[in-house]
Known about the structure:
Helix content: 55-70%
Radius of gyration: 15 Å
Low-confidence stretches: none
Distance between the termini: 58 Å
Mean pLDDT: 89
Number of domains: 1
Number of strands: 0
Order of helices and strands: HHHHHH
Oligomer: single chain
Amino acid sequence: MGKNYIDHETATINSLKDDPAFAAEYLSAVIEDGEPSEIMTALRRISEAKDGVSAIAASTNLNAKSLYRTLSSRGNPRLKNLLAILSALNLKLSVTPKPGHIKSG
């Protein structure tokens, strides 16, 4: 590998820095098509990009070790914790109907 090589994980995290709109689109796309493990990985990447998982833990009053576990591919956060994590990332949860399932007037 050359000096200019950057691994996929680092490149993804770097692309999420300082762009909350892109982070929201990224997470939405993963939620739309991904498995729960991929969603947790996406949340961890966004957390790393923002301030790091430790900083997110501090701002959410969650234990850092627990938060690392929660944001692992096998994580399964409580709704309360998920909402706290999203808030710390300046994101919010929203729900929309699936395409093709919207009744017209």
